[in-house]
């Protein structure tokens, strides 16, 4: 009996451990290039627009399948990974550049943050930290709504990406959060765990996340409210 109980407890411990995502992974404070769960896209057949991009292995495998099937259907239409994992330091440099440029013009911290947040995340709150999310071919809505090649690509992505586990995080018809992004696709089986963990930590111990976020303007904006809006207001298919 004692033995059975011991194994039950052991099993429970491992299950719980496996489900817990460390905080540093949740907010991108790690190096994807040296993480054993990540793979360099340069070592896959996926076309990329720059070297040195990484994804979680399972995500890269599933994306490769999608890419291969897309190429069978549309050999002459570009399907290129233009962004994959971005860690905190990388996202912080994006944020800082936009902040410096926009704050000069707007001279108001909340307005500056709001303007950046149309398309870019606060460091520590991006789905790109998770190694589950990619941007495909273009980061311009015009490409997907005006360009004939972009229209075909978007139509295919909408119809087929769920077969490989991907959802369009920032779709049309949400109440808040980022503008629609036709290019941004998320590997739901893993990303949903990150999202659930983010919610859990923000509810139970928000300081543990918030204290880590010290990007430009962090103390002049309603950080908690913005996290709730921009991290949680995503396509229900991604939950
Ligand atoms: Zn993206």
UniProtKB/TrEMBL annotation:
Coiled coil: none
Keyword Aminoacyl-tRNA synthetase: no
One Pfam family it belongs to: VanY
Organism: Frischella japonica
Domain D-alanyl-D-alanine carboxypeptidase-like core stretches: 54-189
Name of the molecule in the record: M15 family metallopeptidase
Record keywords: Signal
Position of the signal peptide: 1-18
Keyword match Signal: yes
């Amino acid at each position: 009996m004692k033995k059975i109980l011991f194994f039950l407890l052991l099993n429970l411990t491992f299950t719980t451990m496996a489900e817990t995502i460390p905080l540093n992974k949740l907010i991108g404070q790690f190096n994807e290039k040296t993480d054993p769960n990540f793979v360099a896209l340069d070592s896959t057949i996926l076309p990329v627009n720059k070297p040195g991009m990484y994804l979680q292995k399972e995500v890269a495998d599933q994306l490769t399948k999608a890419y291969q099937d897309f190429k069978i259907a549309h050999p002459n239409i570009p399907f290129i990974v233009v962004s994959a994992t971005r860690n905190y330091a990388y996202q912080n440099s994006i944020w800082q550049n936009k902040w410096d440029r926009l704050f000069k013009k707007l001279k108001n911290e909340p307005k500056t943050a709001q303007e950046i947040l149309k398309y870019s995340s606060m460091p520590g709150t991006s789905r790109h930290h998770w190694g589950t999310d990619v941007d495909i071919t273009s980061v311009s809505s015009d490409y997907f709504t005006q360009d004939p090649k972009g229209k075909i690509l978007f139509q295919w992505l909408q119809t087929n990406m769920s077969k490989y586990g991907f959802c369009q995080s920032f779709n049309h018809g949400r109440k808040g959060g980022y503008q629609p992004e036709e290019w941004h696709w998320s590997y739901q089986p893993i990303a949903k765990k990150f999202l659930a963990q983010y919610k859990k930590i923000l509810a139970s111990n928000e300081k543990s996340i918030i204290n880590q976020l010290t990007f430009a303007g962090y103390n002049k904006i309603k950080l908690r409210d913005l996290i709730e809006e921009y991290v949680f207001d995503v396509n229900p298919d991604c939950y």
